[in-house]
Amino acid sequence: MSDSCLERGPKGLERLVGLAVRKCIPCAEGSMQPVAESDAYKLRNQVPGWRVEKTEEGTLCLRQDWTVRSFQSGVELFKRIGEVAEAEGHHPDLHLEGYNKVSAELSTHSIGGLSENDFIMAAKINAIPVADLQPKAKPRFWA
Q1: In what order do the strands lie in the sheet with 60-67?
Q2: Which of 27, 128, 130, 136 has the least CB density, counted as fewest CB within 10 Å?
Q3: Cα 17 from chain centroid?
Q4: Which pLDDT score is estimated for 103?
Q5: Where are the beta strands (DSSP E) in 68-123?
Q6: What pTM does this model have?
């Protein structure tokens, strides 16, 4: 077995391994191309809750929105996402609107679109516990 096979695993393994366990790959100038729009929608199926959208400039990005209990909960969600982003070296655009609406947008600015790194990062953000930050469900009195 070749050394490169030992480093990467068997051919095709990357398609079987979930995105959340993969690492973002640093993009060197010209080494990465944006994923095609059709591929972006296929990869989006692996990151529930995220939407593929077009920016005002017409490039693709991933977006997820959360409603949190309070302003402090929004800041805490920023902190949790920030820790994952720093570990991966891939940083989303984070927004806090009103006092309890948080959104994250992912794209790879250096290539002007979406890369596989954006989907890996979205999967890692999905793994962050957020239930303690979200509003508690109100009890229902009738069905």
Answers
A1: 51-54, 60-67, 101-106, 93-97
A2: 136
A3: 16
A4: 97
A5: 93-97, 101-106
A6: 0.78
Residue found under tokens 């393994």: 13
Domain 31-133: which CATH number of 3.40.50.300, 2.60.40.10, 3.30.1360.20, 1.20.120.450:
3.30.1360.20
Q: Identify how many contiguous H helices and E strands the chain contains and give both numbers.
A: 5, 4
1 residue type, one letter: M
Which residues, listed in sequence order, are joined to residue 102 by a DSSP beta bridge? 66, 96
pLDDT band at 111 (very low <50, low <70, confident <90, very high): confident
Rounded CA separation 67/43 (Å):
24
Q: Where are the beta strands (DSSP E) in the chain?
A: 51-54, 60-67, 93-97, 101-106
**Neighbouring-strand partners of residue 62:** 52, 106
